[in-house]
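Structure first, sequence second, as always.
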């Protein structure tokens, strides 16, 4: 579950909990014959009784609820980053996997060995590896080509060169 999904799920759960507690307290207050606490349900009931499903405001509210529901469903169904990537195996019936973090570390170590590269950030997904390198060099093209070749060679050693594409970007910084 991604961070965005976790935050959305926590916010939605909190909203549902607060709405449920509010509804329960309003129901208890109504049964005790006391005035409503936050929700003026008698005015809302009269207002809603005067409306029909063909009113523009009612249709807009229903459409907004459908859109919000679809967006929540799409975020829930979206696939996240894999924890493991399947590596090729020479033995039939044996599945070899490597952790995504391990592959990221391996690529970062290989890329950081290149001269003129200060730091490297690697993010691996199912089909793409994003490599971002910080360099003090003014000749980006040479460093980018070396970095691309190194990352491609490392992916080839892991057996992922045909399934995972590298995307290399260089950020030049001022030397100290």
């Amino acid at each position: 579950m991604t961070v965005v999904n976790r935050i959305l799920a926590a916010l939605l759960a909190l909203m549902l909990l607060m709405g449920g507690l509010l509804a329960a307290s309003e129901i208890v207050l109504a049964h005790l014959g006391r005035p409503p606490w936050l929700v003026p349900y008698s005015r809302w009931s009269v207002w809603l009784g005067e409306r029909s499903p063909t009113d523009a405001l009612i249709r807009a509210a229903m459409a907004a609820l459908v859109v919000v529901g679809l967006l929540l469903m799409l975020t829930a169904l979206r696939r996240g980053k894999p924890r493991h990537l399947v590596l090729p195996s020479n033995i039939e019936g044996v599945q070899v996997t490597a952790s995504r973090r391990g592959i990221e570390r391996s690529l970062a170590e290989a890329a950081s060995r290149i001269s003129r590269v200060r730091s490297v950030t690697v993010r691996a997904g199912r089909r793409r590896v994003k490599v971002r390198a910080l360099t003090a060099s003014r000749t980006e093209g040479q460093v980018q080509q070396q970095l691309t070749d190194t990352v491609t060679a490392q992916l080839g050693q892991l057996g992922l060169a045909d399934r995972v594409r590298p995307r290399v970007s260089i950020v030049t910084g001022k030397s100290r």
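Margin note: Residues 3-77 form one domain.
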